[in-house]
Amino acid sequence: MKDDQQALFICVDENDKIIGYQTRYECHHNRDIIHRGVDVVLFNNKKDKILLQKRSMRKDTYPGFYTVSASGHVDKGESYKQAAYREMQEELGIYNCEKIKLKEAGKYIIRLSDESEMTVLFTGTYEGELQPAIDEVESVVYVGTKELITIKESLTPGGKATLYKLGLL
Fold first, then answer.
1. What parts of the chain have a pLDDT lower than 50?
2. Quick one: which of 54, 120, 140, 168 is 20 to 30 A from 151 by CA?
3. Maximum CA pair distance of the chain?
């Protein structure tokens, strides 16, 4: 299933105050519209590797690229943390993901060539079972920081920005 281009995203100003709603298509094709999103970076128990996902070829942006463990947009009436847990469940098939202690690691605007996103970054630890959603995720892999450097050009721009924020690239 392709991403619904008419889905409404929460649009905010630079202070994260809600100013309205625009479609996915409008948000992903207008750098002046800031919409809310979340990134989740999951580490293994030793914290020496992070979980990356390879995006499905069915995605509307950056199909086939690697990105952080889970990411997505915040739904109307949802907090950033609720969105992070929902995305882990939807993309990675982690059920009872509320048991994962997520720590907020930053809030910032990612400005790309076609879009701008108010992103809240969460980190956590997980090594349990994964059942990636085939519409969203082609595959998942734990990688070390040396491996990150070798696949840097295969990372989404947003994924790179987040990994730079964490000092992993």
1. 1
2. 120
3. 42
Judge whether 36 and 115 are in contact, CB under 8 Å.
no
Q: So what's the pLDDT on residue 1?
A: 47
AA identity, residue 47 = K
**Do 109 and 27 meet the contact criterion of CB atoms below 8 Å apart?**
no
CATH superfamily placement of domain 36-104+120-165: Nucleoside Triphosphate Pyrophosphohydrolase (3.90.79.10)
Q: How far apart are CA 110 and CA 129, in angstroms?
A: 31
CA gyration radius for the chain?
15
Sign of the C-alpha dihedral computed for residues 134, 137, 139 and 141 taken in this order: negative
- Is 118 within 8 Å of 38 (Cβ atoms)? no
Domain boundaries, the chain: 36-104+120-165
Can you give the pLDDT at residue 3?
A: 65
β-pairing, 50-55 vs 66-67, is: antiparallel
Q: How far apart are CA 155 and CA 107, in angstroms?
A: 20
